Amino acid sequence: MMISILDQFEQGVESRIKIVPTSKQLLDESFDKDSDLQRVPILSKKKVNFSPNDKIAQLLVSNEYVVLVMVNNVLLRINLKQDNIEEIDTLKTSSLKVKQLFLDPFGEHLLISCGNISSSQLFYATKQLSKLKPVGKYQGSEITSVAWNYDYKVKSTSSTTGPILLGNSSGAIIETQLGTEFDRFFQGSVVQYWKEVFDISKGQPIPIIGLQYHRVGKSDLFYILAITPTKLYQFIDFIFNKDERPMLQQIFNNYLTIPGYIVKFENKKVIFPKYFGFLTELGVFVAEIDINKDEKTIFSSHELIEYSRLYGRDDDDFTVPLSMTFTRYHVLLLFPERVIAVSLVAPADRNASQVMDEDYCSDSYGRLLNITKDLMTGTIWLYAERAVFRYKINKEDRHVWKVYLDKGMFEEAKEICINNPHRINQVLVRQAEHFFNSKQYENSALIYANLNVSFEEIVLKFLHLNEKKPIKLFLMKKLYGLNSQDYTKITMITLWLIELFANELAVLRNYKQGKLQEYTTLQESFKQFLSISIIQDCIRKNWESIYDILASHGDVSFMIWLALENQDYKRVIQHYLNEENIAEALTLLDNHPFSELFYTFSSDLVEKAPAQTVSILIKQGQKLDPLKVINALIIPNPNERLAMEIIRYLEYSIHCLNCHAESVHNYLISLYIKYNKDKLMNYLKLQGREITAVSYSPEFALRLCREHQLGEACVQLSIVLGLWEAAVDLALTISVDLAKTTASLPNNNIELSKKLWLKIAQYVVKQNNDIEQAMRFLEECKFIKIEDILPFFPDFVTIDHFKDAVCSSLEVYNKDIQNLKEEMEDATKSAEVIRSEILSFRNGYMLIQPSNECSSCHEQLMTKAFYTFPCSHCFHAECLIKEMQPYVDSSIINTIKDLQNQLSTLYQNNKDISQSLEAINRRDKVKESLDKLLASECFFCGDIMISLIDKPFIEDAVFEKIKQEWE
After folding, report:
1. For a Cys staple, 718 with which of 143, 606, 723, 929, CB 3.0–4.6 Å?
2. Which residue range or ranges hold the Pep3/Vps18 RING C-terminal domain (predicted)?
3. pTM of the predicted model, to two decimals?
4. Region of 234 on the Ramachandran plot (φ > 0 left; ψ -120 to 50 alpha; else beta)
């Protein structure tokens, strides 16, 4: 009985006679920090806790399912997952002897080849079937090999094998499909079909000792390998109808008349077996599967691991191994007394041993029979006549990476060392050195940049080269590996690279005609380098150094490009100004409208290109602050052309940008006064006469206008300042009409207007001494009468000159007197009407019915004290106060309540009939005061309700709440 076969191995490792392998020559322990690993063997076996009753003849393991056949024909099947042993002894009484077992890779199907001297027979069983089934009535040659179906879809239905190939001892290849599901339909047969598809014997029977077929990934391409003791056969083709039976005959049909061919297949993503190998008399034949049209074979390379050279020396007295199996990097060879692990990769030194480990076995369990591998789990099994062992493979790549490294197979070495930083660093160092020594400097530089080695040492290696591209690649790769915190290193490498690029460009510029394309390519590469994010901050902080480098090589165009890329427009514009390239400066300013640039350069640009500069300023609109622009446009003594352009911008700021800054307006006035006096008066008139409305300083403007003797403007400014008399006096020095216009302006101040007109009248009379003109002046002014100007005339003037004027004045006075009389009569009549209405109102009355209700609470009116109004609205006194309370001042409400309290107190204290006259008068006064507050007007018809006409029915504070309730 076997207990926990998978887990309960014997604790003690089988004692071993360990010979120190000469493969130590491959290793230098100082080269590898994993020195402790050298003491751990690659091969470590443990005996399975299983004691058979008889000697073991054969053992197969697939998918943790073990099948053993004993020498007495007893068949054991063990499910390692369930620790279950099943014994099948149906062949004990048979004359047939079990020759070979064939177990599919999923552990589902089992074929048993049996025979004796006269006949052979084939039996079939499944994992669920305990009884062996004969495969038809097959009595032909012994089955010596089986090519199983590796399709996982077939594995999921364990009742059928899918299409498989059988090879027999005569050289025939048979295609068949077996399964228990056919048993019901074909009278006990487990065979769906049976077809001989190829014969490689060519009339001379030769056994097929190995047979495999595989599908290449998920494609329709299949290949078949068949091995005889002397030859290897290969077949390959597409199968387009996988439902056809027999299926694989479609491949063999192409090889019936021709030796064979290989079709093209280039899909590199599919997965299929990578290697295959078999034992020969001289060594292990190992080949790498690579379906290639040019090579006309399914394997691209092969190698013979000679038995005579396993230990690095010629040994003619070698032993051919009994069996073999593969691991990832080794082939395990079974000899009668030991198992050795031979590296699949031959060492660079031909005299070095290819044996990486040896495991000696004692003969206490009988002779060793075979070593096999579970293809699904990768476990290695060794069995002797009376014991079963399981191997554990420990770090088998420990030597292989060094072998790859010594052979210069760096990519393979890196694949093995990917998780070992120490090893991978050594591989990269050797690879970089290899590239450098073989003059592949660029590849060497890229690798060195990723290594943690001395920066100075590597730089010195590349500095000695005439070619500068390798050191550039090294520096750039190194730069990409730095963190933003390594600012000093980033700065140093960046400046160095800029120097290298600039130097290369300078050299090529000398040969620009012949190397234009190379120059352009290098320049683009330089631009891409400068646009890398990691160095952008470095560039911004080291502008001056970078410009100095570029300037030292005379690369002005690149300096401009770099400045533009990094938005250093200030530097570019300054460069254009220095070069007197005003057009380029203006274009740049127009295309990159940064406000600070305008404030900085407007002064220089407007002097050299006034019209273009002002047009660009106007184009910016509200993006610019007019005050800051004007600071740049304040130029001492500008020429007329420049001044007119400045005026154009100032007018735009005022009229389009609504600029009201006093300094802007004052500057415009000063320019108007000096260069465009015609526009000054229009501007002043547009600004108006109110001093609070004008945007300029009237005092400043008046002072400038006086200095330049601009009389009319001075008149206008005096009006703005309210200096009316001075304005009229100044206007009279210009023209009487201007004075008249000025005097007619203050219409709201009659006294001032009269005073101003008198000034004009006095000037007209005294200066001109023209009585007729004075009379016409009286007609123009309605404020002045003949009697006002008479004192201005000389004494010798006779009354005849004023007869018409005096008569006209008297007529006016007579009309005024008549109008006053009519107004007095109208007022008298109106007073009488009002007096009669008051008398009639005193005698008026209203009839109050018992059914009348309060207009507020709608209860019976006469139950409480009430007020009634001519409009027929009636209110209880309390209701009227309540209605008025929200709409009158709190002080009035408090006064009403205080009067009510006083009145209530007076009524309670004076209930005696013999009330004093003083108390009655006091009560009447209080009641009169209360009535004035409450009954002065109807609440519904009076001023209070009228003032509420624009008040919303729903207050804003509760509107949203009511809206949500209705929703």
Report:
1. 723
2. 849-946
3. 0.54
4. beta
